[in-house]
Amino acid sequence: MDILDGIAPLAERYDGYVLDLWGVVHNGKRLYPGVPEALAELKARGKRVAFLTNAPRRAWMIQGMLDGMALDRALYDGIMSSGEITWRMLKERSHPFFAPLGRRAFHIGPEKDLSVIEEGVAEVAADPAGADFLLNTGPDPERGSADPAPYRPALEAAAAHRLPMVCVNPDRFVMVGEDRLICAGALADIYLELGGSVFEVGKPDPAVYDPVMELLGLADRRRVLAIGDTPHTDLAGAAAAGMDALWAMTGLAAHAHGDNPDPERLRQVALSEGVDPIAAIRALRW
Hints:
By secondary structure, the chain is an alpha/beta fold. It contains nine helices and 14 strands. It holds the Pfam family Hydrolase_like. GO terms for molecular function: phosphatase activity.
């Protein structure tokens, strides 16, 4: 697999770019070096740029986070998140999984993620017995982000009441700084083992790329490149949506493969994941 040093060689091949955030644009704390400059070069060439993240928060919250990292809003055209899509699905309730859901949600996750039920699209229930469904946005500060085991009692209680789970982040892990932390997807795996019903909102579901194409204002997916650090979500999702994918060697990829990955090893890993990115890139830089 070819490993590019930066995005410049591909810039003119595509009209639009769909970028993952955690692990590509930033590490959960700060922007990766070279990212603003790379985005500026793309925008200077008239390219459209949208962020697609499995973060379990609404887009306005994520924009505020990027503002806090001093990323100029002029460098991108929009943000779509699993949290934003979940909020829309709970509001519309037209999807077959969401249509029969009641309005009372037993929440596993930090309070900051409750933007996904704001404006009355659902309400928090104190315990599984009083809930209609399980809203899983990931680990909370009390039980921590290192190990899913502390969440098993709550998951078992929800399963005992046969609550369907809405998993608002299909990621199993994420890198925050130098730490590899669990995400909502890791809790969904346990719930499935318990016999629970789970609907995951986010990549790799190709449906989440539809609103991203609206943000880009483009129709031809062959002219759009998706960049992500995780094969089974970012790269698989792009393939399912009919887009080329570029594998970023930052975030989880850096954790798994180091600073100087072996091209043949990357090719084998991609094949084992059922994906075929056009290349890898050392980092999102020009």
